[in-house]
Design brief:
Distance between the termini: 13 Å
Strand content: 5-15%
Low-confidence stretches: 136-140
Order of helices and strands: HHHHEEE
Structural class: mainly alpha
Number of strands: 3
Shape: globular
Length: about 140
């Protein structure tokens, strides 16, 4: 059965655009914070912090960070999972003898892709510096 693809263009209002920008910025900050936590723990104490330990911290971090209160917790959990995928790829390349490429911090100019719950489907949204937003899993 052939698959259909739909492309939608969003025209958010100014408050919606500000909320979307704040969500993406919170995800970028959270990703960088989790990466810094893993890097510092290994450099200073020689210990590793895994995905599940950071997933357990999402609730506490969300309570202490005022900008994260408006972000769904599933989105922040996805950020931790994305970081864990980056480390899995890093260690896979190390074992294979390839050039590893340690996970990098996400710059402010680069928008962080976000996944938000939409009922049973997931909504993927990535805002680009040009102001456009790409979304998937819509209309099928």
């Amino acid at each position: 059965m052939p698959r259909k693809a739909f492309r939608y263009r969003l025209y958010p209002s100014r408050p919606q655009a500000r909320l979307l920008d704040a969500t993406l910025e919170t995800c970028r900050f959270f990703y960088n914070d989790c990466l810094a936590q893993r890097k510092t723990a290994y450099q200073e104490r020689g210990e590793t912090i895994g995905k599940f330990e950071q997933l357990r911290q999402v609730k506490a971090r969300k309570a202490t960070n005022p900008s994260a209160k408006n972000v769904h917790s599933h989105v922040l959990q996805t950020v931790v999972q994305d970081l864990d995928k980056a480390f899995d790829a890093f260690f896979r390349r190390v074992i294979a003898g390839e050039e590893p490429g340690y996970p990098r911090f996400v710059r402010h100019e680069v928008a962080y892709p976000t996944v938000a719950p939409q009922g049973r489907n997931l909504l993927f949204c990535q805002q680009f510096p040009t102001g456009t937003c790409a979304m998937s899993n819509q209309g099928v």
